[in-house]
Write a structure and sequence with these properties.
The structure is a homotetramer.
Chain A lengths: L1 H19 L11 E6 L2 E7 L13 H17 L8 E9 L8 E11 L3 E10 L5 E10 L2
Antiparallel strand pairs in A: 1-2, 2-4, 3-6, 4-5, 5-6
Chain lengths: ~140, ~140, ~140, ~140
C-alpha cells in the first residue's frame, strides 16, 4: 500500500524528469503511471495523433518505445533500482489500436539476476482487455 | 542509376510526407535518405539530443523506431510497393552511440512473398562501420 | 470437462503420431500432455540426459524445440485446427534446468486471425514454478 | 590458413565430442564443419528425415537448434573460447527446405564484449544460396 504509493510517486517523478530532459523520452508526455512497485509498472494513455502512423493507428515504433520505457520503469522499482542497458527487445504486434483508444501498458520483471534482468510487457485496450502488442526486454545491469 | 535516383527521390518524398503528417514519424525529421531501390534503403543521421536517453546515448526506443521505419521504406521500393503491417520486430543492441555521432541505417528486404515480407536492418557508426544495433522485421502484406 | 478431455486425447494422439513419424519430433518422446483445449496446451516432462548440453542442463536448442512444438499443439486445439507454418520464434532463457528436474510447458494462443496466429509459451520448474524460459511464436495459417 | 585449418579441426573435435556426449547435441550427427576461425563457423548438412517435420520439411525446432549450436561453435573460435550461456535466441523462417536438400549454416560473432556476445546465423540452400532462416543469438560470458 504505502510502498506501492511510494513506488507510484517515484515512477511519476522518473517519468516527469525523463520527459523534461529533452531527449526521446519526451514522446512519453501523454503517458500516465497507474501503479508500480516490486518490479512492476502499469501505465496508461490515450492514443493521440502524435503516436500514430500514416493510417491513424498506433505506430509500431512507438509501441516498441513503450515496451522499452515502461519495462525500464518496472525495473527501477526492484531492489537494484538501476535502469540497466538494453540487450534485446522483441515486439509482437497482434492488433491495431486507433487514435482515441485508451491503452494500458503492463510491465513486469520476470527475473533480475546479478548481471541480467528479464522483462515482459503487455499492451492492451483498456476497456476490452484485448491484447495489442506483447514485448520482451532483456537488460544488462552493468 | 536512373532507377536508383528515382527510388531515392521516391523515398525522400515518402519520408517528407510522413514527417509532415504530424504522427510519430515526425521523430524522423533528421533522417536523410542516402540511397534506395530493389528492396533496400540506406539512410543516415547525426544523433541529436532529441534521439537520446538520460545518459546522452541513442535511445533504445528510437533505435527500434529506426528499424521499423527504414525497413518499411526499403519494402516500399519492391515491386509490391505496399508498406504492410508489422508482425514481429526484434532488435539487438550491440554498442552505445553518443550525441553527435553520425550513424547509417541499412535496411534490406530478405524476402517478399505473397503474404509476408522479411526485412533486416543494420545500424552502424558511419565513420568506423562499428555495428550499433541489428534489427529484424516481419511484415504482413494484407 | 468433456471438451477438455477430448482435447487432451486429441493432443496425445497428435504427439504420439509425431514421435512415431521418425522426424525431429521423436526428440519429444518423453513429453507428456497434461491438458489442452481452446488454444492451450500444457505438457510436462522430466529432463533426461538426451535433452541436455555438455554441462548437464536443459539444452537451449531443445528449449526452442519445446516452444515450437507445444505452441503448435496449442494451436491445433483452436477452431481452425491447422498447424500453420512458423514465421518467427523468439526464446528468452532465464534459468538453467538440470537433469532430473520436472518441467512444465504451458502454451497459449494469444490471437488467431485469418492469416496469422500468435502464441506464447512459459517453461517452468514444475515444483517451484520458477520461470526457466519464455517463448513467442508467430505462425502463418496459409 | 594454418590458423583456419586449426580452427576447423578444433570445431570438428568439439562437434564430435558433443555428438558422442549423449545429450541433445547428438541431433547434430549429420552436421559437417566446412570452416571456422576468428568468430566464424560455417557448417553444412543434407536434410534427412530425422531433421524434418510431419510434412517432410526442415523442422523449425531443428532450425533453432542449428542457430544455437553453430553460433556457439563460432563463439568458441574467438580469443575467449568459452561457450557462454544463452540469453536470447530469435529465428525468422523464410523458406521451407525439403528432405534431400543440402543446406549451409553460416554463423558469425558480431561482437564479443566482457560480459556479452552477439551472434548472427544465416541458413541457406547450398546450391541456390536462397535464405531459409535467419537467427540471432545473445550469450552471457559468465
Amino acid at each position: 500500500m504505502a510502498a506501492t504509493n511510494g513506488a507510484k510517486k517515484f515512477l511519476q517523478h522518473i517519468l516527469a524528469v525523463a520527459i523534461e530532459g529533452g531527449g526521446f523520452d519526451k514522446t512519453l508526455s501523454k503517458l500516465r503511471i497507474v501503479s508500480g512497485g516490486k518490479g512492476r509498472c502499469i501505465a496508461e494513455m490515450r492514443i493521440e495523433k502524435e503516436h500514430t502512423n500514416r493510417i491513424g493507428v498506433l505506430h509500431g515504433g512507438f509501441t516498441a518505445m513503450l515496451v522499452d520505457a515502461v519495462s525500464t520503469m518496472a525495473l527501477r522499482t526492484t531492489e537494484k533500482a538501476v535502469p540497466g542497458i538494453s540487450v534485446d527487445i522483441s515486439v509482437t504486434y497482434l492488433r491495431a489500436a486507433k487514435t482515441g483508444e485508451e491503452i494500458m501498458i503492463n510491465a513486469e520483471t520476470l527475473k533480475i539476476g546479478r548481471s541480467l534482468a528479464f522483462l515482459s510487457v503487455d499492451i492492451t485496450n483498456k476497456e476490452s482487455g484485448a491484447l495489442i502488442a506483447k514485448g520482451s526486454h532483456t537488460k544488462f545491469m552493468g
